[in-house]
Write a structure and sequence with these properties.
single chain, 4 helices
Amino acid sequence: MLTKAAPKRDRMHLRLDAASKRKLERAAAYARKSVTDFVLSQAVEAAEHVLKTHEQRVLSAADWEAFCKALDRPPKPNRALKEGFRWYRAKAA
């Protein structure tokens, strides 16, 4: 979340229609915030939700155990994997 200690130096400009502006002003007034603080807090909250949805995965206990087991005891490289490494080395060289 936003902290009051962090100085605000960056700026964004926003164009909107009059009805949307009035709606944001009314909502900000109910929240007892400036329009800027209201819009910023709502935008950051929405951004956190979108980022969490796309960047975080929650595993069940069984899936977590399977994941850890796979990391602890990976299978031996098969023929296809070895060929892939050879191909990559040839391309990277």
